[in-house]
Amino acid sequence: MKNTKRLVKDRYITGFDGIRTIAVLGVILYHLFPTVLVGGYLGVPVFFAVSGYLITNLLRQEWIQTKEVDLKAFYIRRMKRLYPALIAMLVLSTAYITIFQSNLLNNIHGEIISSLLYLNNWWQIFQGTSYFDHFAVPSPFTHIWSLAVEAQYYLVWPIVFVLLEKFIKYPGKIIKIISSLTLLSVLLMALFYTPNTDPTRVYYGTDTRLFSILLGSAFAFIWPSYRLKKEIPQSARHFLNGVGIISLFIIIMSFLFLADHYNFVYYGGMFIFTIFAVLLVAVTAHPGADLNRWLTNPVFDWIGKRSYGIYLYQFPVMVFYEAKIKNLTHFSLWHSFIELLLILGISELSYRYIEKPFKKFHYKYSLLVLKDLVSKPLFKRWKIISGIGIFVGLLALYGLIIAPSNQIDAQQQELQEQIEVNKKKVEDRKSHIIQGKSDSSPQVAKELDYGLIPEEKERAKNMEISVIGDSVILNASADLQKIFPKMVIDSDVGRQLYASVPVVEKLKKEKMFKDTILIGLGTNGSFTEAQFNDFMHAIGEKKVYWINVRVPTKRWQDDVNSMLEEMKKKYKNLTIIDWYNYSNAHEEWFYDDHVHPNEIGRIKYATFVAKHLVDGKGRPVK
């Protein structure tokens, strides 16, 4: 008779809930306060490390006891743990989108299917979506990428584990194989990463992120929890506690300072971080150390047990809530507090009514349960809950039926087409200048005077200006080049300051870096003083005009504008063009995103910028 009893089944490592709490809070606060907890995204490799260790530890216990792994039972346990809450989140979110935010129905089929198949990370890669384009209309399902990576591991690893145990047998050799795969994943991240570009491919890829899970798996062979003894020498206890405290300290410091765009992160930094995460897991698992007790308390227990639901609902809550707030910069902390309460409240309902019941539910009795439910009085609690669930499910189904594919609303279409046309124009003009050809485009607009007096128009004709910017300045580039025919524009959608030093160097190499520089950056995210200094150092002593930002839907608007005001005091060659205060009271100048100027707004934008530039002193000509 097969013995299926698990070893040390009764030892639940409560400190792991503490680690999960630290991880999930890091991720949430990274999204709520991106300029404060710049490294909170590293909560994900902490989750990966815990999962790798726990799953492999359980598989090893089963193998040692029975010399086999019940793969069917393993997959059923994982599905019962993961799918009910995921499906509930997808259904609830789709129903909400159908009623309140129908613009997000576009392409929702691919998002739902890829999420259910746990292929969302690869789907997002092939769609060309960016985890780091903070301005783009966000999907409430963006975060499913990490669950997909874990689920792919859950699918493949038990089979690989059994093969290793059967044919390799020796733990030392197995550890070497896992370590080799871990280093291969680290190497792939470094090889696929290109500095100063969007790192989404290496951030999402299973191949480039697997090392965090595999490192946890390797430690399950090195440091199996069921072989660790509570009674150890005092010196060993102190040593373990020291390792755990140092690891926890490095994790917290990384959350605070290791920003996602640092090259170091992808050239081994995330791997080094994962080593400390695994060390924290290992020390917490040891009954002879004090970390497990230190990481165990009612708050950590509550959050840790609900961490899956908290992670699931963070993005839907943030996306749906923030879409209804026109200006997040007003009472920003209050908005963040409300979002946090909503996430915790919904995750509690998920834990109580979805995760716990379905984890214990025997699906073979589904028909009997359904029959019993139908026979109950109409106003019994579970019958009411089931009725609400059916209604929400039908609403979500309706949303999927009417959902368009690859369609955007009229304003988005107009903005997208305007940006694409302008981008081609500025690239063509740049190409003509490089090749020494004359530019056939209009020198100064005949149909519009842009509010400029003849003296200003004449001055603008001869001004040589280099522009570095994002989609806002690209959107208005046609109007700017009508006013300034010698203006050279290098702008791109989603561009951020930290990736813009190479743009300066490229313009210098092309001999198109003029004496007057116009900058339009900050729409897509904030920046540090060090990043600003690097950028200004690359520019040198040239005269710099910097257009501040109007991004009321994003938390970093005030941070960016405050930083620019501070930097103006430091750099004498820097002038701030205060587009924010000039335009802030004029919603009619903008598309529905409240950021990109519409047809009227583009003229206002170009005129306002032009008047500052032609004056040469940072103020409009009277």
UniProtKB/TrEMBL annotation:
<feature type="transmembrane region" description="Helical">
    <location>
        <begin position="238"/>
        <end position="258"/>
    </location>
</feature>
<dbReference type="GO" id="GO:0016747">
    <property type="term" value="F:acyltransferase activity, transferring groups other than amino-acyl groups"/>
</dbReference>
<dbReference type="GO" id="GO:0009103">
    <property type="term" value="P:lipopolysaccharide biosynthetic process"/>
</dbReference>
<protein>
    <submittedName>
        <fullName>Acyltransferase</fullName>
    </submittedName>
</protein>
<feature type="transmembrane region" description="Helical">
    <location>
        <begin position="176"/>
        <end position="196"/>
    </location>
</feature>
<dbReference type="InterPro" id="IPR050879">
    <property type="entry name" value="Acyltransferase_3"/>
</dbReference>
<dbReference type="Pfam" id="PF01757">
    <property type="entry name" value="Acyl_transf_3"/>
</dbReference>
<feature type="transmembrane region" description="Helical">
    <location>
        <begin position="39"/>
        <end position="60"/>
    </location>
</feature>
<feature type="transmembrane region" description="Helical">
    <location>
        <begin position="208"/>
        <end position="226"/>
    </location>
</feature>
<keyword id="KW-1003">Cell membrane</keyword>
<dbReference type="GO" id="GO:0005886">
    <property type="term" value="C:plasma membrane"/>
</dbReference>
<keyword id="KW-0472">Membrane</keyword>
<feature type="transmembrane region" description="Helical">
    <location>
        <begin position="144"/>
        <end position="164"/>
    </location>
</feature>
<keyword id="KW-1133">Transmembrane helix</keyword>
<keyword id="KW-0808">Transferase</keyword>
<keyword id="KW-0812">Transmembrane</keyword>
<dbReference type="InterPro" id="IPR036514">
    <property type="entry name" value="SGNH_hydro_sf"/>
</dbReference>
<dbReference type="InterPro" id="IPR002656">
    <property type="entry name" value="Acyl_transf_3_dom"/>
</dbReference>
<keyword id="KW-0012">Acyltransferase</keyword>
<feature type="transmembrane region" description="Helical">
    <location>
        <begin position="264"/>
        <end position="283"/>
    </location>
</feature>
<feature type="domain" description="Acyltransferase 3">
    <location>
        <begin position="14"/>
        <end position="344"/>
    </location>
</feature>
<feature type="transmembrane region" description="Helical">
    <location>
        <begin position="81"/>
        <end position="99"/>
    </location>
</feature>
<feature type="transmembrane region" description="Helical">
    <location>
        <begin position="12"/>
        <end position="33"/>
    </location>
</feature>
<feature type="transmembrane region" description="Helical">
    <location>
        <begin position="384"/>
        <end position="403"/>
    </location>
</feature>
